[in-house]
Amino acid sequence: MAEKILFEQSYEKQKHGLLTETLDRLRPIYTDEELRALRIDSIKRDMLSLGSGRGFVNRDILETILGNLLECVAPGSHNAPDPQYQKRDLAEAVEEVVDQLYAMIAQSFLAVSESPRLEEAVETTFALLWDLPRLKTRARWNRFASLRDPAVWDAYLLHRGVSHEKLAELNIGTHVDSAIVERDFEPYQDFLNSLGLGFAFDYQMQLVVSAYPGWRVLFYHDVAHALTRVGQLDDSPDLHQIPVPLLPRAIAELGGRYYQADLHPETRIGDANFLEHPHRGITTGQTGIIGSGCAMYPCTLGGLSVKVKQRHPDVGNFVQIGTDAGIFGPVKIGDYSSIGTNTEMYGFIEMGEGCRIGSSVIIGTIKSEANRPGVIRLGKRVHVGDSTIIENTSAIDLIIPDQSEVPARSHVANDGFGHPRFIA
User: Fold this and answer.
1) I want to staple 56 with a disulfide (CB 3.0 to 4.6 A). Which of 111, 123, 295, 297 is the partner?
2) Which of 52, 139, 60, 48 lies closest to 101 in space, CA to CA?
3) Helix residue ranges per DSSP H, 59-199
């Protein structure tokens, strides 16, 4: 009965009408080499049609679908099935993914409604696949961002004659960031070529795609986030998105299970981001925002309020957040800022661009019974030394002027007029 509901004739008609347009859009984004590497695992329709009760998500099937979607953005990166089950033709491969993704989305709607409009599940399926060119580009930039990690210069490359001394003299991260700003890999490749290290680029990208987990969990998030969006696609007048129930959170849960990176599907995240050691735990919240070009070590971007409002951090572009940092509440972090290890920030805080917050720093607003505390406003390029405490208990905003230097182990409070007061 479930199979008849999911894969009835109306589904086939609607699917084939959209499949031709989608294939025309997707074919140009793949090279011949990528098409030869593409591997899509099949799932029988009777398995796709099986419900799982109120907890509907069959996680084994979902794992396969996510693996197939990974293949769609990075062919050859995930699956290696028996060749007899390989989908050799792009049209055949995409149609297999359509059936799988549609079944999972349709099951999601069936789990919360006795009479869902399954044509909306078809539209939502194709809306995600229509977005594959953008998702493929995002995945590639997230992989490239991992080249900030010095460990991509591994024993294999060093064995090929690259010396530690030579590498220590290079500011490689700056060239990676410049390529991200320009949205062009060539300047970074030219930089390597000028040093006689051009051979390293392809190997490093291969190392990242095969062994680095950060870009994968970010792709899981991209899929989950896409399933929370609503509205008409900009470049497709025929496709509309509506939020899918249950499934985005199930995808996020799998990401947490595999990588200990708990990224809420509604968090807005840019691309070209590097998640370092996500297995140690990275957490974002529903209303959080993370820009592009960021480097994030195991940290928590959490909320303090239980109200339905902006309650999680807003992180700018090219921000670095150190290991075990905890940032809670509607904290705003300016572009090109850095947060040191073991630092805690909470409450109403706004940082300008280029700020440098040291390690083991505490910055927070403290609410009294009488009033809501004012905002702590750090101007542009403020430097805060290690083990410093900055707190605001006043209803008046505490202003730390541009380019201020707050020495290590300082204790700063509001003087009652919005100016910093150093406590002995």
Assistant:
1) 111
2) 48
3) 59-73, 90-112, 118-130, 132-145, 155-159, 164-168, 172-182, 186-194
Phi-psi region of 13 (alpha: psi -120 to 50; beta: other; left: phi over 0): alpha
Tell me the pLDDT tens digit for each residue of 134-161. 999 999 999 999 999 999 999 999 888 7
**Please, how many CA atoms are within 13 Å of residue 148, restricted to the half-sphere of its CB?**
26
329: left (phi over 0), alpha (psi -120 to 50) or beta: left
CA 350 to each of CA 121, 379, 400: distance values in angstroms, whole numbers, following the listed order: 41, 8, 10
What sections of 260-343 are H helices per DSSP? none
Banded model confidence at residue 81, pLDDT cuts 50, 70, 90 = low
What element of type H or E holds 13? helix 9-26
Query: Is the distance from CB of 403 to CB of 378 less than 8 angstroms?
Result: no
> Given pLDDT bands bounded at 50, 70 and 90, which one contains residue 1?
very low
For the record, the structure tokens of 125 come out as: 């399926």
- Residues recorded for the chain: 424
Q: Which helix (H) or strand (E) holds 241?
A: strand 240-241
- What is the distance, to the nearest Å, from the Cα of residue 176 to the centroid of all Cα atoms in its chain? 18
The three-state secondary structure class of 365 is strand
Residue 323: count of CB within 10 angstroms of its CB:
16
Q: Buried b / exposed e across 335-360, counting CB within 10 Å, b at 16+? A: bbbbbbbbbbbbbbbbbbbbbbbbbb
Q: How many CB atoms lie within 10 A of CB 174?
A: 11
In this prediction, residue 167 carries a pLDDT of 87
* Dihedral in degrees, nearest 10, Cα atoms 103, 109, 110, 112: 150
Distance CA 177, CA 272 (A): 9
User: Which residues sit opposite 289 in a β-bridge?
Assistant: 268, 314
